[in-house]
Amino acid sequence: MGEPALKERVSDLEMAMMELAYQSMKTDMAIKDLVNQNKSFQWEMKAFKDEMKDFKDEMKEFKNEMKDFKDEMKEFKDEMKDFKDEMKEFKNEMKQFKTDSEADRKRMNKQWGDLANKMGTIVEDIVAPGMGGVAREYFQVEEFNYFAVRVRTVKTDGSSRREFDVVAETPEFIFVVETKATARTEYISDFIKLIPELPSWFPVIGEKTLIPVFASLHLSDENIRYLTRNNIMAMAMRDDGMDFYNPEVREYLLKQNS
To answer: Thinking of the domain 120-256, which architecture would CATH place it in?
Structure first.
């Protein structure tokens, strides 16, 4: 082999060695870069794992808080249920108390009425004390100028004498009350006949509005209708005292005497 050929082969070998060295260097660089990338990925994965751990810890804490909240809500609901049960029991007790009180009041009023009836003092004990309340409620009367029970008086012509159960006066009204322990149709009829004659017993009726009242411990619906048709105030016991059962008559009386 000649010297030129040998030189050519050496030159090719050098080029091959250089190429190999270059490729080796590129491979080393690629491996180093890959290693760096892997390290970076590992760091990122570690950071991700740390974040996930923090997130899991936060979620665990949140779950614990939610559990505590649920427990508190359950406790609150239980307390509210107990409170509602107590309120229901209290309302039932109050309802029963009200029912018992109303029954006691009715029974006492009935017993008082029966006792007054037996003693013949219904006018003094029940009707007279009740007049102030009904006069105030239905006729806005604050006080009477004159008030008397069992008033004995004589007709202006002196022809007869009579007793009236209750007579009460204000500057505007005169109340004449007929009282019966037991209301009967004939008693009401007698009072109806008496009303046109009242001015001859009480001349002041010409100057004031006459309010005729028929009072009893109890008035039937028929009694009340009869009194209403004849424009007489119907007064009887309610649960808590005496009251008018036909207040609509008031308007008629005020118009007739105005």
So the answer is: 3-Layer(aba) Sandwich (3.40)
